[in-house]
Structure formats: structure tokens, C-alpha cells
Amino acid sequence: MFILKLVVSVGGSMVPQCTSLLVRNLSLACHCLRYPKRNSPYSPSNSERYSSLLKSVMSSRVSSQTPETLQAEDDHIYGPIVKGQTPSSRPEMREPRTFHPFLNCEKTLETEEPESGLPVRILFDRSPGRTIVPSVSRILQQTLSPEQIFYLERWKKRMVAELGEDGFKEYTQNLFRQGKIFHSVLEDVLMSGETWEETHPPETPEYPPEVQGYMESISHILEDVTAVRATESTVQHDTLNYLGIVDCVAHYRGVLCVIDWKTSEKPKPFLRNTYDNPIQVAAYAGALNSDDNYKYQVENGLIVVAYKDGSPAHAHQLSSELMLEYWKTWLLRLEEFTEQRPSHVSSAFSEKR
Q1: Going by fewer Cβ within 10 Å, which terminus of the chain is more open, N or C?
Q2: What is the reported pLDDT for 78?
């Protein structure tokens, strides 16, 4: 702010007077006097047209991809999917109509590791006259949700498009063969009754080349596995009429667990990445607890995901609380399986697991 002094003559004398003026306001006033106001270059019709265009752009929406849009994209690239259905909204959580107990009140829970001894292995009865009982794996396969079926078929179509029909068949056969060798080698290690440190020196042991990476991957897990109680052993729930072959029952870091060994080419760092595997482990544990061939109970689980490239395996522990939740889910899947097939049909097949 500047002070502008004015001198006024009064009775022949010059008397100064001060008037406060804002130079900025004065400058603006002068500018307005010198330059006339500009008219808008847009006519009313142009402004109206611009407003309509702006509303049109601002009102458009871009939605995220859904199974429906993914299927449309895949149909365009790979052709239409023949089997399965497009997944709908997720079903609401339900409770089993009949809740069968997970634990057996006639058995006791182990609080300490038992004395060392050879693990139990109860072979699967394949005799012609045996009673046919559905397996855990078959029941889970027959009760996949529409969403699971959709993504499974989508993965298969992409693999076939990449490898061809014969290439995909060879790929799945190799995976099955590698898994079989991996479980066989593991069984030999666990059946020895010795700890990992006792049977394996610091240097890397030799295994079949197909499973060398997998065994290296789980080496740090095996260091914490002790007191193996069973390996590749059949468990059966007579009341619920199902069976399975459990990979391993042992102590992991001092806790008795049903252990399931899995192989994967992709990392699975979170439990949700293992899909239905926790339900499978809970089903095995529930069958073992009900089976009179086993004089103990198991209320914890462990899923170990081994990697072909030898990177450290992920170990997903299932607490007793989590096992109860997955046991409820298993009972729901079992009810669904029973509803799908009459009793005389559901007992007409059997699988290893």
C-alpha cells in the first residue's frame, strides 16, 4: 500500500493532504477502462453441445473383469467352453444338517511324543470282494462349485491352446509320475524311523532327477518332522462311509499333525492358494480319529508345498480351530455328494484317495 500526497491551496496557502489508495485497485480500474470486456467465443449452441459431450464422458463407467467377461474373452481367443457353467454369486455359508464329531471321545489326545518305532502303514484293500467305499478325492471332485469348475476348465483350455492335446496329456502324465516318485522317496525316508539329520549328511543327497528339486525344497521342513506315526496309510470313517490314504502322521515342531505333501510349479505362499487341500486334510483327520486301527487322535494339520526348482517349500499349519471349520465344510460337501448319487450308485466306485 502506498500513500499518495495531494496539495490543496486554501487561502493562498498550500496545505498537503494524504489520501490512502490501493495501487492494485487503481491499476485494475485503469485496465478496465483501457480494455473492453471480451465476449465468449462460444455461442449458446456451442456451449450446449460442449456440456452434452462432457456429461457423456463423465457418465461412462468401466467395470472390472468378471467371470462372464473373462469367458467372453476366452471364447473369442480359444473358442467356446463346452462343459461347465458360468459361476454365479457365491453361495451362502450353511451348517451341516447333521454334525458328526471330529474327535472320538473314546480315544485320548497325545500330549507328548511317543517312543520311537516304525511308522504304521495300512494298505488299501484292493481285493475283488471288498466293500466299495467312495474316496475323499472323488467326493471333492464331484462337488466342485461352478466357479471352481469354470476356472479349472479355463486353465485346461489355455494349456491345450499352448501345448496341444497330446502335449497337455504328456504334461499331466509327467506331473502324475513326478508326484508318485516324490511320495515314494518320501515314504522311504519317513519309514526309516530316523530323523532327517541322522539319515542325511550336510551335503546334498542323491535322488532321482525328477524329484531332486522337490526333496531339496522340503529339506528344512523335514528337519522339524519327528516321531512319524503313519505314512501312506489308509484311513476310513465307517459311520460317514468314506476313506482316504493319508500321506503322513507325525509331529511337526512338537505338534501331532496329519501332513499332506503337495508339489507345485508356482509359489503358494498362502493357505488360500491350496484350494480344497485343507478340506482334504480335515477329512483324513476325521477318518483317522474314527478308525479303530489308530489308537490316538489328531486335531492339527499341515500342508507342505514343495517346488520343483528347489526353492524353500511353504508349510501351512492348520490349528485345531481351523480344522474344525474345514471339517464342517467337509460334512457339507459329503452331504452334497450323497444327494447327487443314490446309495447304490455312490458305492459303485473307489479311488486310491
Answers
A1: N
A2: 59
If one compares 154 and 49, the residue with the highest pLDDT of the two is: 154
Average pLDDT taken over every residue of the chain: 78
Q: Inform me whether the pLDDT recorded for 253 exceeds 50.
A: yes
Q: Going by C-beta distance under 8 Å and a sequence separation of 6 or more, which residues neighbour residue 187?
A: 231, 232
262 catalytic per annotation: yes
Kindly indicate the confidence band of residue 162, based on its pLDDT and cuts at 50, 70 and 90. Answer: very high
Is 249 buried (19+), middle (13-18) or exposed (0-12) by CB count in 10 A?
Answer: buried
Which grid coordinates belong to 303?
Answer: 500342508
Residue 324 has pLDDT above 80, yes or no: yes
Q: pLDDT-derived band of residue 49, with 50, 70 and 90 as boundaries?
A: low
Q: What is the pTM of this model?
A: 0.69
| 3-state DSSP of the chain | CEEEEEEEEECCEEEEEEEEECHHHHHHHHHHHHCCCCCCCCCHHHHHHHHHHHHHHHHCCCCCCCHHHHHHHHHHHHCCCCCCCCCCCCCCCCCCCCCCCCCCCCCCECCCCCCCCCCECCCCCCCCCCCCCCEHHHHHHHCCCHHHHHHHHHHHHHHHHHHHHHHHHHHHHHHHHHHHHHHHHHHHHHHCCCCHHHHCCCCCCCCCCCCHHHHHHHHHHHCCEEEEEEEEEEEEECCCCEEEEEEEEEEECCEEEEEEEEEECCCCCCHHHHCCHHHHHHHHHHHHHHCCCCCCECCEEEEEEEECCCCCCEEEEECHHHHHHHHHHHHHHHHHHHHHCCHHHHCCCCCCC
**Does residue 173 surpass a pLDDT of 60?**
yes
Calculate mean pLDDT across residues 15-35: 44
- Residue 75 is a catalytic residue: no
Q: Which of 247, 268, 276, 308 is catalytic?
A: 247
Spot the catalytic one: 262, 268, 276, 291.
262
To the query of whether residue 291 is one of the catalytic residues in this protein, the response is: no
From 157, 260, 268, 308, active-site residue = 260
